[in-house]
Amino acid sequence: MIKRHTLTFALLCASLSASTTPDSVVQALPTLTVQETNATLLDASEFDAEALAIGTAGGTSVIYLDTEFIGSVNTTADIFRFDPGVYAQAGSVIQDTRLSVRGSGATRRYGNRGITLLIDGVPANSIDGSFYTRAYNPMNISYAQVFRGGNGLAYGGNQIGGTINFVQKTGISNPGGEAQFEYGSFETTRNYVGYGIQEGRSDAYISASWNESDGYRSHQSWRDFNTTANFGYRWSDTAITRAYILYSDSDADLASGLTKHEAIHDPKKSNNIGAEDRDLSTFRASQKTALELDHTQLELFNYYQILDLDHLTRSTRPANLIDYDTKEYGLGARSTSDFAIADIDQTLRTSLLYSWGDNDIGGYRSAYGFGPPRSLNNDYTDGAANFQLYLENESHVTEALSLIYGIGWQHAQRDRHIKGGQQDDASSTISKFDESYDGTTPRFAVIYTLTQDWKVFANYSQSFEAPTFGESSGALDAQTAHTYEIGTRVNRPRYSGEFTLYHSEIKDDFIDAEASSGGYVAENYDTQRQGIETAWTVKLWPTPSETAAINLFLDASYQWNDFSFDGGEYDNNQIPGIAEHVITTRLRIEEPTGLWRIALTVERLASGLEINNANTLESTAPFTLVNLSADYKINRQLSLYGGVDNLFDERTINTVTINPFNASTAYSPGNGISAYLGMRLHF
C-alpha cells in the first residue's frame, strides 16, 4: 500500500523526529512517495525535511540551521539570509528584525504582523496577530519551514504572508550534550548549552543561552537570556505527547535615527543621551498530542503565553513609558485523512484554532516635544478573541496530477476597556472600541509532476487579517487579498531550486499613513504587490559521478518586491520600508568528508528604501556586503568556526523609520566591519 504523507502529519514529524541533511541552504522540495511502513510516529525517520512539504502547490522552503550555515547563525536575519521569500533586516536593535513575507506588515513601525508564527506547530503570535522576533531562540532551532501565502492556510496562516514554523531540537534529534561559545566585535559574547536524552518511551531536551553586546553604535547595547525545555512521551505506537516550556528575557538600548549624511559619515553616532530602551520578557508553555487512527492522523494542542514589554522613549523630555502585560491562551486541532472516491485517492486536511487573551496597558504618555504631559497614566485593557476553521481536500487525480481546493472562515473580536485612571484624565486621547471581523479564505491549486524531479504548480488563494490593537482603535476594516501564483520546483543531482511568480491585490491594507500634524495614523488603503521568489543551488565541481579533493557549490537567491499603492492620494507610489531587489549569492568550498568548509557570501540590496508613503523624502542608497566565514572540525566532538561580516566596511542604511515624526532623522545604519570566533562542542 502506498500512502501520500501530507503536510499536517509532516509538521508533527518535524517536531518529534530527526531530520537528514540536504545539500543546499534553501532546498527545493522534491516529489516523494514513501512506502507505508509500521514505523511509529516518533520513529518516522524516513522523512527528511524536503518530504515534510511534499505536494505543496506554491512557494515553500526549508532552512536547516544545524548543518546548512557556515559560521554564525544567531539572529532572525541570519536564519533567512538565503531564503527567497522572506525579507529580514535587523535594525537598531539587532534582535528586533523586520520580518516580512510578500510585504506583510510592510509599513509597521514596531514589531511585526501579517505572518502566522509557529513554534513546533503551535501558534506563537500575540493575541492580536502581532509578534516580536525576540520571543524564540535561534540557537535552539533545528530548522524552519516557510509556507508562503495560501500555502500556510492549513496551519492557520490566513494572513497574506502565510506561515513560518520553527522546529526546536528534541532528545531524539539532538541526543547528548552540545555547547557553543562565541566572541566577536563590539564586545559581543554568545553562549549556548543544551542536552538531549532518550530512554524507553521518553525523551527530553533542555537548553539555555545568554548573549550580550555593546553594539556597533553608541547607545546600542543589548543582552538576552533564553531557556527552553521539552519532554516527549510515546503512549503507544500510534500516540505521542510532547510538552514545551520557554522563558526569555531581553533588554536593549535604542540608538536614535540619524540624518542620511550622519548615517553614512558618522554611523556610530546616536543622539540619545538618556535611558531609552525596549525590554521584553516571554513565558510560554504548550503541549501537543498526536494520534494515528486508522487512515487519519490527528493533532491536538494548547498553549499559554505571557509577554511583558516595557518600552521607554524620549528620555530627554517628559518621557513616554509603554508597559504591556499580555496573557493569552489557545487550543486547536489539525487532522489529515486519506480515503478514496471513485478509485481516486483523496487527502482531507482540517485545521481548527480558538485563541483569546488580553493586554493590560500601563505606564504613562507625555507630550511630543516640550510642555506638560498629555496623559499622566495609561490605564486600559485591550482584549481579543480569534476563531479559525479551515478545510482542504486534495484529489490525486493521477500519479502526476493533484487538485487542491479548500475554504476557511475566520472570526476575530477586538475591544478596549478604559479603567479608572485613564477615565479621570481629561486630556487623554485614548478611546474605547468593540469591533468584530469575519472573513473567508478559499484556495484552489494544482500541482503536476513533469518528471520524477520536476514539478510545476499554480495557486489562487484569498487571505484575511483582522487589525491589531493599534489599528482596531482606528476602527479599520479587516484586510483581504487575492493572490495568484505560478511556479516550478526542481531537484536534480547537479542542481536544485525553485521559481515562484506571484501577484496580490490587497483591499483595505493596513498602512501607517502620515498625519497632518506630523507622525502617522493607521488607515485602510488598497495596494498591490507582485514579485519573484527564486533560489538555486548548483554543484560547480566535480560532477555528481566524480570525486575530488574539494566540492564547489554556488547558492543564489533573488527577491523582486514590487509593492505599490493602488488608488488614493498615494496611487502608484512605492510602499516604504522594503527594498525592491534583494540578491544573495554564496560560493562554498567544502572538503568532501566535512572536515572544513569556507564560504564567501555577497548580499546586495540593489534598490534603496523609501521613507514615507508620499515618496517625498530622500530614499536610501543600494549597497553590497561581502561576508567571509569558515569552520573546521578538530574531531568528532569539537569544531571551530569564525568569520568576518561586511569585509570591506561598507557604510550602509538597511532600515528606516517609516513616516517619521522627524523626517530628517529617519535613517538607521547597518553594522560596519565585524569579526567573530567560536567553538562548538558535542559530548
Tell me, what is the CATH class?
Answer: Mainly Beta
Most strands sheet: 22 strands, antiparallel, barrel
Strand content range: over 45%
Helix percent band? under 10%
Mean pLDDT: 86
Report the end-to-end length measured between terminal Cα atoms.
41 Å
Secondary structure category: mainly beta
Number of helices: 6
- The CATH topology label is Maltoporin, Chain A
Any idea what the shape is?
globular
| Total number of beta strands | 34
What does this structure look like?
The protein is mostly beta strands. It is 5% helix and 54% strand. The strands form 5 sheets. It has a 22-stranded antiparallel β-barrel. A 5-stranded mixed beta sheet has the order 3-8-9-6-7, with no helix packed on it. A hairpin with a 2-residue loop joins β15 and β16 (296-313). The longest helix has 10 residues, at 7-16. The relative contact order is 0.13.
Task: Give the arrangement of secondary structure elements.
Layout: E1 2-3, H1 7-16, E2 34-35, H2 49-52, E3 60-64, H3 76-79, E4 86-90, E5 97-101, E6 116-119, E7 122-123, E8 141-148, E9 162-168, E10 176-184, E11 188-199, E12 202-213, E13 222-236, E14 239-253, H4 260-265, E15 277-293, E16 296-313, E17 320-341, E18 344-364, E19 380-396, E20 401-418, H5 420-423, E21 434-440, E22 443-451, E23 454-465, H6 469-472, E24 479-491, E25 495-514, E26 520-541, E27 551-565, E28 581-590, E29 596-605, E30 623-633, E31 638-645, E32 653-656, E33 667-669, E34 674-682
Parallel strand pairs: 6-9
Antiparallel strand pairs: 1-2, 3-8, 4-5, 6-7, 8-9, 10-11, 10-34, 11-12, 12-13, 13-14, 14-15, 15-16, 16-17, 17-18, 18-19, 19-20, 20-21, 20-22, 22-23, 23-24, 24-25, 25-26, 26-27, 27-28, 28-29, 29-30, 30-31, 31-34, 32-33
